[in-house]
Amino acid sequence: MSLLLASSSAIRQAMLDAAGVEYQALAAGVDETAAKARHGGDPAALALELAQAKAKAISGQRQDQWVIGSDSVVSVGARLFDKPASREDAAAHLRSFSGQQMQLVSAVALARGGQIDWSHCESATLHVRKLSEGFIADYLKREWPAVSYCVGVFRLEGPGVQLFESIDGDHFTILGMPLLPLLGALRERGIIAS
Questions:
Q1: pLDDT, tens digit, 9 for 90 and up, residues 65-75
Q2: Would you state the pLDDT for residue 30?
Q3: What are phi and psi for residue 90, nearest 5 degrees?
Q4: Is the pTM of this model over 0.90?
Q5: CA 182 → CA 146, 147, 174, 190, distances in Å?
Q6: Known catalytic residue: 82?
Q7: Residue 73 in 3-state DSSP?
Q8: pLDDT of 43 above 70
Q9: What dotted CATH number matches 3-188?
């Protein structure tokens, strides 16, 4: 039984690779604008809708295959953040995060035949330390453009860990996909060995 990942995210692929899950990755190409307009104030609803939309988009094209969709949303207070469009935008994001509690919500969904069969959402709280202008400049000098694909402007598996004083939440959720619940769902459906 073949499994598809509706994502070009290197970290999501690395998580599945490390877990020994065989899959093929395909970019979903979902327009996020309408979903953001519908769920502007609800990060969990937005993350879930985007994960499901990605899974359904590929699943509709590959009717006989299981498809994983996943997405993450970052907010500080009531403000939702997009992936930074430029290095200057990334610096502005980091200034907004400085000394704040960042909420990160990651959702994952499984679809087959164009229909959602299962979905799950988890959140984490990341306590961002006070970031100096010097740190921000040095950090982006080292991490840009790699973090341009990261809504929170960090890679926890790299220098991005230096942004935080503490983190409350599941490691995989913070990386961008609630992996343990997904593995359980894959086992329940006989997609991977139980």
A1: 999 999 999 99
A2: 81
A3: -60, -40
A4: yes
A5: 26, 25, 14, 12
A6: no
A7: strand
A8: yes
A9: 3.90.950.10
Tell me which of 74-83, 95-104, 120-129 is least confident.
74-83
Residue of 71, 89, 168, 170 marked active site: 71
C-alpha pair distances (Å), 150 with each of 13, 57, 74, 86, 104: 14, 22, 10, 12, 12
- Cα–Cα dist 75/104, whole Å: 7
Amino acid at 92: A
Provide the CB-side half-sphere exposure for 78 (13 A, CA): 2
Please confirm whether the linkage preceding 145 is cis (ω < 30° from 0). yes
- Percentage helix, strand, coil for the chain under 3-state DSSP, each rounded to 5: 40, 25, 35
Task: Extract the tokens encoding 74.
Answer: 């970052």
| Residues 88, 58 contacting (CB under 8 angstroms) | no
